[in-house]
């Protein structure tokens, strides 16, 4: 039987997703991912080639790490429908690295019988360095009753739920988990466009150490 | 600096047939053993018509796009900086999805050693009725080759 499903009514802003520690990345996995994805870029599978272009070894494609973080979401949001999933690649993942995927509910809202949760996501390596950060929007049934109604062709349960990041800002700031280091949204233009002011002011956020990563991708336009 | 005229250039739609074996191998490569990607019965009991594909599965889709052609430059190296997906619905085994690729933006961004060329490439997947299934956006740091192709 399928695992217990997740319903909107049970989720609170600030809820943490159970962390997912993946098995260490190895070269066999890189080959398998190359085969499965059809991306045979030699920097991910050919050690000699990777060294010839100045890399210490082959490294994991960003999309593999994004897939791991996707597993974190799908494992948690059973019964939910992923609507949006965005990431920024920050640091390379090498063979031997262990990726730990983490996430936290940043917002929830519902209107017209459709219910959504917003999640902040990030992945760290075994040294605790940020390798990727992102966000996702999941659509959920309000409750088991809502699911049963909709599956039998009835109208959904309608509860108007304004974005909680606005209404509960004070409560969230007092929550014990709220001050933990969360990857900053600052400068993430895509997020700013998408979420406007809603998710930015709720939780005091520290700058992640990996801001100083040497990849050009981690550098942001200084305004 | 990349040619701004590249914006809007697109490749024709390419058919991708979503096979169960391809979904299984993709999920295995990630190390994700959620039965929803493997087990037909489990997927149906979970409310889906059949097994579904992991969220990043569209990364395995083919498109007719040749980035050198779309961007109009020879490419020395590409760095994948950001990736995003919007989903209209899950992707199911048996789906026939037409994927087209277009250049949605090119611009410059200050980098460590001078300006970096950024290209945003958008893939769009539609079913046979023309309904949107997903959109995918890749943000790439492009280092053009010295000589033009």
Keyphrases for this structure?
heterodimer, A: 223 residues, alpha+beta, Thiol Ester Dehydrase, Chain A, 2 domains, 5-stranded antiparallel β-sheet, 8 helices, 27% helix, 22% strand, elongated, disordered C terminus, B: 149 residues, mainly beta, 3 helices, 15% helix, 40% strand, FAS1-like_DH_region (chain B), FAS1-like dehydratase domain-containing protein (chain B), HotDog_dom_sf (chain B)
Describe, in plain words, how this protein is organized in 3D.
The complex is a heterodimer of chains A (223) and B (149). With 223 residues, chain A is an alpha+beta fold. Chain A has two domains: 144 residues, Hotdog Thioesterase (Thiol Ester Dehydrase, Chain A), CATH 3.10.129; 34 residues, no CATH class. Chain A is built from eight helices and five strands. Chain A has a five-stranded antiparallel sheet with strand order 1-3-4-5-2, with helices on one face. Chain A is elongated, with a radius of gyration of 19 Å. The C terminus of chain A is likely disordered. Chain B is mainly beta and 149 residues long. Chain B has a domain of 97 residues: Thiol Ester Dehydrase, Chain A (Roll). In chain B, strands 1-3-4-5-2 form a five-stranded antiparallel sheet. Chain B is elongated, with a radius of gyration of 18 Å. The mean pLDDT of chain B is 93. Chains A and B meet through helix 1, helix 4 and strand 2 of A and helix 1, strand 2 and strand 3 of B.
Mean pLDDT of chain B: 93
**CATH level-two architecture of the largest domain in chain A:** Roll
Oligomer: heterodimer
CATH class of the largest domain in chain A, anyone? Alpha Beta
Distance between the termini of chain A: 53 Å
Report the strand count of chain B.
5
Number of discrete helical segments of chain A = 8
Helix % of chain A is 25-40%
Helices and strands of chain B: which structural class? mainly beta
CATH domain topology of the domain at 4-17 and 62-144 in chain B: Thiol Ester Dehydrase, Chain A
The chain pair forming the largest interface, with residue counts per chain, is: A-B, 47 and 38 residues
Order of helices and strands of chain A: EHHHHEEEEHHHH
Q: What Rg of chain B, in angstroms, do the CA atoms define?
A: 18 Å
**Uncertain spans of chain A, ≥5 residues at pLDDT below 50?**
172-223
Mean pLDDT of chain A: 82
| Helix and strand element order of chain B | EHHHEEEE
Q: Write down the CATH class of the domain at 4-17 and 62-144 in chain B.
A: Alpha Beta
Strand order of the largest sheet of chain B: 1-3-4-5-2
Largest sheet of chain B: 5 strands, antiparallel
Largest sheet of chain A: 5 strands, antiparallel
Q: What structural class is derived from the secondary structure elements of chain A?
A: alpha+beta
Protein name (chain B): FAS1-like dehydratase domain-containing protein
Domain FAS1-like dehydratase (chain B): 6-134
Organism (chain B): Pseudomyxococcus hansupus
């Amino acid at each position: 039987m399928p695992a217990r499903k997740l319903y909107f009514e049970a989720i609170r802003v600030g809820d943490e997703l159970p962390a997912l520690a993946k098995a260490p990345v190895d070269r066999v996995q890189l080959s398998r991912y190359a085969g499965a994805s059809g991306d045979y870029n030699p920097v991910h599978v050919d050690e000699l080639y990777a060294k010839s272009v100045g890399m210490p070894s082959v490294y994991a494609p960003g999309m593999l790490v994004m897939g791991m973080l996707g597993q974190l979401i799908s494992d948690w949001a059973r019964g939910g429908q992923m609507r949006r999933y965005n990431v920024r690649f920050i640091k390379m993942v090498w063979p031997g690295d262990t990726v730990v995927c983490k996430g936290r509910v940043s917002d929830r809202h519902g209107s017209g019988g459709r219910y959504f949760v917003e999640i902040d996501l990030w992945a760290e390596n075994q040294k605790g360095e940020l390798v990727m950060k992102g966000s996702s929007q999941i659509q959920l049934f309000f409750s088991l009753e809502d699911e049963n109604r909709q599956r039998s062709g009835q109208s959904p349960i309608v509860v108007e739920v304004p974005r909680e990041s606005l209404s509960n800002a004070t409560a969230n700031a007092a929550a014990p988990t709220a001050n933990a280091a969360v990857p900053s949204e600052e400068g993430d233009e895509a997020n700013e466009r998408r979420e406007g002011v809603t998710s930015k002011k709720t939780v005091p956020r520290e700058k992640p150490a990996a801001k100083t990563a040497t990849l050009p991708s981690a550098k942001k336009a200084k305004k | 600096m990349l040619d701004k005229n590249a914006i809007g250039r697109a490749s024709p739609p390419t058919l991708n047939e979503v096979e169960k074996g391809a979904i299984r191998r993709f999920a295995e490569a990630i190390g994700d053993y959620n039965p929803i990607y493997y087990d037909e019965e489990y997927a149906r009991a979970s409310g889906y018509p059949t097994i579904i594909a992991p969220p990043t599965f569209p990364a395995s889709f083919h498109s007719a796009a040749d980035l050198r052609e779309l961007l109009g430059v020879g490419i020395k190296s590409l760095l994948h900086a950001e990736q995003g997906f919007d989903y209209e619905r899950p992707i199911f085994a048996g789906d026939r999805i037409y994927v087209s690729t277009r250049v949605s933006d090119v611009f410059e961004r200050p980098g460590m050693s001078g300006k970096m060329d950024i290209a945003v490439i958008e893939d769009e997947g539609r079913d046979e009725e023309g309904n949107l299934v997903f959109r995918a956006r890749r943000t790439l740091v492009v280092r053009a080759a010295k000589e033009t192709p």
